[in-house]
Amino acid sequence: MAEAVDMDAFCESFKAFAIQGDTKATGKDMTNKNWAKMCKDCKVIDGKKVTGTDVDIVFSKVKDKSARTITVDQCKKALEELSAKRFPKDDDGKNKTFALIAGKKPGTTGVTKASKTGGVDRMTDTSQYTGSHKERFGADGKGKGIEGREDIADNSGYVGNYKGEKTYDKKVKK
C-alpha cells in the first residue's frame, strides 16, 4: 500500500476549486459545476471508466437532499465511490484518486484573454480619426469632453430655433 495522501493539500485544492468562478463562495462547499471541473481538471474523469455522467450521479448521491452543494467530507465520500470505478481491483485506488486532486489548482484553459492584435490599437488611436470625430480630441489625444462638440444641446426649455427666446418676462404683465 502506498503512502497516505496529504489531506491538507487535498483540502486546499477543494477550497481552490470551490471558489473558482464564484465571487460569493466561501470555499467550505462546492457546487456541481465546480465538482465536475475539479474531476475533469484533475483527470478523475478518464472518459472510459469514469465519465461526466458518473461524476454528476455521484454528486447527487452524496449531497444532502435539499442542498445544491457538497462539503469536504461529502467530497471525500464521492471520491471514494469514484475510485472504485476509476481504479478497479486496486486496493490503493482510494489514495490514488485523492493523489490526483491533492495540490492541484483550477486550470484556465478556454478562458478568454485580452486581444493582442493590432486592430484594437488602431481603433483607439485618436490621431487616425477623421471628420467630425477628429474634432473631439485635442493634440495630446485626450478627449475635449463637451467642449469638443460643435452643437451643444440647449436645455433652456425653449423649442429649437424659437426666435423669441428670453422674451417671456416682457410679455407677461406684472
UniProtKB/TrEMBL annotation:
Extent of the signal sequence: none
The organism's place on the tree of life at top rank: Eukaryota
One example of a Gene Ontology biological process annotation: positive regulation of protein polymerization
GO CC, alphabetical: microtubule
GO MF terms held by the record: tubulin binding
Ranges annotated as biased composition (Basic and acidic residues): 132-152, 163-174
Annotated stretches, region: Disordered: 109-174
Assigned protein family: Belongs to the TPPP family.
Name of this chain's protein: TPPP3 protein
